[in-house]
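C-alpha cells
________________
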Amino acid sequence: MLDYWLAAVRRLAASALVTGALCAAAMTAALVLGDGAAWREAAPRSLAVGAAVALAFAAVLSTANLVSAARTARRHGLALGPEAVPLPCVREVRVPGVTDRTAFQLTDGVRYAVERDPVLRPAEVTAFGHGKLDLTVRGPSDTTVAVRIRVTTGPEGATAVVEARPATPHKRLDAAACWTVARLLERRVEETLRAEAGDGGQVRP
C-alpha cells in the first residue's frame, strides 16, 4: 500500500509543483501590489505557502486515490502495488504449445471471451483484425478504459500483449482502473490461449 502511495505522489509531483508555484506567485503579487510589502519580505512567505500547498495537493490526492484503488483491488482479488500507477498499463501473456491456429483465430477467440465477460463489461470494439483487437471497457467506478490487445504466433507458441490506458488522455491517476482492467484481461486472454494449447503457459510477473 505504501509503495503505491509513494508512486502516486511521484506521479503527481509535477502537477503539485505547478499548483504550488501558481499559489506562491498569486500570494506574492497580492502582498506586493495589494499590501505594499517589499519583495524580500513577500517572497519567503509566499514560497513557504506554495510549498505547503504543493505537499497538501500531492498528499490528499494520492491518499484519496489509494483508498479507491485498494477498494478496487480487494473487490477483484488483486494485490495492489506500485506497478498499478504508471499509465498505460501493459501486461504480457505467453503460452507455448499453440499449433495450427492463426493470430486471427486466436484474436477472435479472445474477442469472444472478452465480450461475454460479466466483470469487464466491454462497451465497444473499435478495431478487430489479424492479431489486433481494440476496444473500450467500462472499468471500476465506471471509468472508461481504452484497451489494445495484440496477438502473435510463432514456433514456440502464442504471445499476447494487453495495453490499457484511460480513454481521457489527460488523466494522471485513475485509482488503478487501467491496471485492474489489464490484469482481468490478462487472465481472460491466458485462459483463452490455454484452451487452444492445452496445459501449460507462462504469464510475465
Summary: The first strand starts at residue 89 and ends at 96. The CA atoms of residues 91 and 186 lie 7 Å apart.
